[in-house]
Amino acid sequence: MPRLSSLEDLERLYATQGALTYGEGVSQIEHALQCAILAQEDGAPPSLIIAALLHDVGHLFEVAEDVARFEVDDRHQSTGADALRGLFDEAVCGPIALHVAAKRYLCCKEAGYHAALSFASQASLKLQGGPFDADQAAAFERLPYWREAVTLRRYDDIGKRDEMSAHAFADFMPVMRELLIDKAKA
Ligand code: FE
Ligand code: FE
Question: 55 C-alpha to center of ligand 1: Å?
Answer without folding.
Answer: 6
